[in-house]
Amino acid sequence: MTVPDQPQRPAQYVLEYPEGYPAVYEADVVLRDGATAHLRPITPGDADLLVAFYGRVSEQSKYYRFFAPYPQLSDRDVARFTQVDYVDRLALIVTVGDDMIGVGRYERTGRRTAEVAFLIEDAHQGRGLGQLLLEHLAQAAREHGIARFIAEVLPDNRKMITVFTEAGYKVAREFEDGVIMVEFDIAPTDTSFGVMQAREQRSEALSIARLLTPAGVAVIGASRREGTIGNALLRNLRDGGFPGRLYAVNTDTQASEIDGVPAYPTIRDVDGPVDLAVVAVRAEMVADVILDCAAKGVRGLVVVSSGFAEIGDEGRKRQRYLVGLARSYGMRVIGPNALGVINTAPGVSLNATLSPLMPSRGRVAFFCQSGALGVSILADMVGRGLGLSSFVSAGNRADVSGNDLMQFWYSDEATEVVLLYLESLGNPRKFSRVARRLAGRKPVVALKSGRATQGVPLGHTVRRSTLPPATVDSLFRQSGLIGVDTPGELFDVAQLLAHQPLPKGRRVAIVSNSDALTLLALDSVAACGLAVAGEPRTLNAEATAADFGAALSEVFADDRVHSVVVIFTPPVQSNGAEVARVLAAAAAGSDKPVVSTFLASRSVPEQLRVPDEHGGAARGSIPSFSSPQYAVGALAKATTYAEWRRRADSRIPDLPGIDTAGAEDFVAEFLQRHPHGADLDDADRQRLLSFYDISVLPAFPVLSADEAVDRAADLGFEVILKATAEQWRMRPDLADIWRHIHDEDDMREAWAEMTRTFGVASDPARAQFVVQKMAPPGVPVVISALEDVSYGPVVTFGLSGVATDLLGDRSYRMPPLTTTDAAEMVREVRAAPLLYGYRGSDPVDIPAIENLLHRVSRLTLELEEVVRCDLRSVLVAAQGATVLDTTIRIAPNEKPRQDTPARRLT
């Protein structure tokens, strides 16, 4: 079967796209009830689709739209509504399958204003279509210079009034001639962002809940033949105790049952409702299966089948077609090439995976992308006795991703700890935003593979980032994620977080009956940046349970102690059970976390377990690790996360002196002059930065000694002569700056020496010399912003110099920056002590650095076309910071950012 690349969804009415059709406005969206739909601009080919839609709309809804009886659309109406210019007149429609279910449009009424209107099919009202259309119309309108929407609404059309008033914008209303006039600015605000993100979380969480809590499940491709995927899926669902209705579907069988499960030739023939279809058929058959599932009313799919993007171009086409088709009919997809899903919740007991291991019920949720690793992960969890709330292995991650699962787990009361194994980040900006929100409520432990190589599995379709691997680590820190390096460390940290409280500080007490293991623990405490509270309580090898009890009572009562590490190795006469009882009694009711190396076990030992109502380990149970290094390492991760949770309220600061509109106009005018993009010259750089209240010390190019002397005289001397050509900047063997030029003789000496040093005496232009006023002495730093095709804007900070470049000593953050983000950027580089008075030098003005970081962050966040902005020489003094040298490039953004204000599935 040859899979068509287009169309990717069954929009049979759209035969061709008109000139100027903005495909970028197309989006798959999640509705309020968790189902999906497709949103796109209208085309002239949608005439029949519009007429059919209008015929299903009630007379009342038509009256609300047109303020008069309007039973049908004339040919002139149809032409006017479907033929738009996509700039001054834009209409967006929402479709499910082959049906249009809603339309929203704006028409420009002035240079900066437009009238907006909506019409939603009655059967689909209340699903959030109006709010989605408003978000996407507002985003498109802003791109075309429209700043304000107006609308006329009848007083009893309460649903439409609610769409406007609950959008998060500041809405003005007036009553005139029996009509309510609504008017509001459409610039995004903190309130409107908050509203959209809350709606996004609720709808995406519900879309996942539909997958994880089915009442009826069908295995398509089920088989009674041992060793087949279809047989394993059916058996695991049945044996896992799924209480709902289970169906086997196999086109080749005439039997009425397979392994005791009712069997049918197609899902259309199933005699009961099906919420979830688990698909294990050949890849070329999946598209037909999706159409059958749509006809049956299935809510979601787990596609275990392989043969998609992981096999190459043909598979990628097949995968795009699969996702587009499923979403167009309201269904989410886990997979393809997925291991499956598990939900241990009472009344669900769903094991729709290829793994026969069903973990016990617990408080830890897990998302992974690798099916092969998923099997070993489940085995490790069972081996450690670590309970699970839910598990999703997404395979190629064509639709459902870790972002969706984090949205679900944010509000899932059964989940207290989230684990992520990530092979790729499809939408890093959204990942960071969603993870940060979740981490503020629940700990999130993440393992990202391929950081060193930026490798991406074949089946994953992602934009390839050009940023260094350190960016991922910085993204994790910014979002409050607990980053780990190995699967073992992932479960070590989970074991601690699932059973013990978070530490309230970094001071650790050690109670041990082994000198050797105590030394290992002390080394680990120092290496992890923790501190020992007093001297370790090292008992002898013959210590009794009473000895342990006395030492433990002492450390738990000590206010200096924030966490406790207990090491117990069995003496010749083992008294492990007695020591366990003493330890459990001492820790009971304490708010200090306890980790142990108890008989070198790697789980929660039975003796240290507080049983829950399901027979698992409840909170208060004490985890054990095979060695002190692992125990202390997990404790250090939890401590750092606890500090992130406790840090002072962080906010995005208000920055005075910013002219966003002026900057946007400048960028638009620049791109008219340079449609393919260009580096800005000195004057344009000064002008653009001035919109963000960033001043640059002027530098004046000179081509001769006489010209350098004249320019220095104009500046009143006290200047520098600098070579700015890239090949000589910051060369350790060449001095590219001559400072402290007081008079003409100094300048001529500087010119002679520098042209000789660089070998450009006959052609000084090669060195690109400039004369610049001396800045106050200080520490040179670099602040940069880059528009990455995957991450979007990323701001970096480091000290200036070859050592920084060589060692990669930089910090990274994704805008917008909070006050804490900026403060951490400055402090986390290894050379930061040079800014704080290293070896008797004067401390520099740290707030001035943070102010520049915020302003560059704001610039790159608001101006998507600024693909690079470097303040590549900033001299920070005891008071103030002087920007000496900049480079900026503006270019058309060929691939828009993935995390837009308007909600969409990516």
Walk me through what this model shows:
- The N terminus is likely disordered.
- The chain is an alpha/beta fold and 906 residues long.
- Helix 6 crosses helix 11, helix 12 runs parallel beside helix 13 and helix 21 crosses helix 22.
- The strands form six sheets. An eight-stranded mixed sheet has the order 1-2-3-4-5-6-8-7, with helices on both faces. A seven-stranded mixed sheet has the order 11-12-10-9-13-14-15, with helices on both faces.
- The radius of gyration is 32 Å and the shape is flat.
Number of helices: 25
Mean pLDDT comes to 91
Query: Can you list the strand order of the major beta sheet?
Result: 1-2-3-4-5-6-8-7
- Major β-sheet annotation: 8 strands, mixed
Structural class: alpha/beta
How many extended strands?
Answer: 37
How much of the sequence is in beta strands?
A: 15-25%
Low-confidence stretches: 1-9, 11-15
Helix content: 25-40%
Keywords: Ligase
GO molecular function, one term: ligase activity
Pfam families: Acetyltransf_3, ATP-grasp_5, CoA_binding_2, Succ_CoA_lig
InterPro entries: Acyl_CoA_acyltransferase, ATP_grasp_subdomain_1, CoA-bd, GNAT_dom, NAD(P)-bd_dom_sf, Succ_CoA_lig_flav_dom, Succinyl-CoA_synth-like
